[in-house]
Design a protein that fits this description.
about 40 residues
């Protein structure tokens, strides 16, 4: 198996989705905190 130095598009997409998920979770947590749920 050859190792390519270029990042595969799959990993880039996964990282992008993870970032979006993290932002969504953070915003939800902030909203919940404001409403006094946490």
């Amino acid at each position: 198996m050859r190792r390519r130095r270029k990042k595969s598009p799959r990993t880039d997409v996964a990282v992008h989705e993870l970032l979006i998920l993290a932002v969504l979770v953070l915003s939800l947590a902030i909203q919940a905190h404001r409403h006094g749920l946490i």
